[in-house]
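Just scan this pair:

***
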Amino acid sequence: YLIVITNKDILADLLISEGYSFIELAKKNSNQGFFSKFLKLFISSFKLLRITLNYKPEILIGCLSQIAWVGFILRKKTFFFAEDDYSYTKLQCKITYPFITNVLTAEEVNVGPYHKKQLKYPGYHKLAYLHPTVFNPSEKCLDNYGITIPYFLIRLVSLSAHHDVQIKGINEQMLEDIISELSKYGKVYISSEKKIPEKFASHMLKINVSDMHSIMNFSNGIISDSQSMTVESCMLGVPNIRINSFKNKISVLNSLEHTYDLTSSFNADEFNLIDLNSITEIKKETIDKRKKKLLNEKIYPIPFYLKVISSQ
């Protein structure tokens, strides 16, 4: 196999920490305009085309639009992994799904007019690496960083994707208020994609990226404007609150909130309605029971992925 990436968030750091070699199609840059992003998309697609012509893979697998185009041009089977609904990633879907073989999604995901290409499974993408079958959190890493229980995490993202235009998340005043309230119950750490004011420096979480899920697992609660970390928190059974403009707009998160009661969501302008104490008051037995219900009803997805790919 050959791994190619466009560097997003901590992807390259994770691959390096796990000892994987990879080819980077495009550099990470969260401050690009719309035109620059599309220019990067086309340039990286031509780069991937050259790589594919040289490497000659039988199948292309991933979540990049580039693999759809290259696979279509070279008549290669392409399998696209998606967690997002058509309704809020419409542009990416329109430029990707017409060219792929299949899109693999959780059964809740709505892919709009491309449902004939959808292969659904009763699970979640993030269970591929957070299911108890494969994830074994290390409490030892807390000692490595001098972290003591109880503690809380705040996760901030840049909200710079094309579908994040005019989307609001946790602002500076909210951040101050959250820290002030949760500090009554334990240490508060911040993990942030974006640069934040120096006054929050003492709260910044400085860890190896490969330890993040263990740190999350043993935390007493997570406040975030990140969709991904919210879903991960639910998979781990960690009390959490999501604050951004995507409330009720994402099928997977709606299911985790309303079917399994593993998360709570609020729009940024509803911050005054949030009871931050709710994540400190919930009993571990309660959230463990909800997580157990989810795991009983959802599959570990890797065997499903392998079955689809190997049948080609």
Notes: The first strand starts at residue 4 and ends at 6.
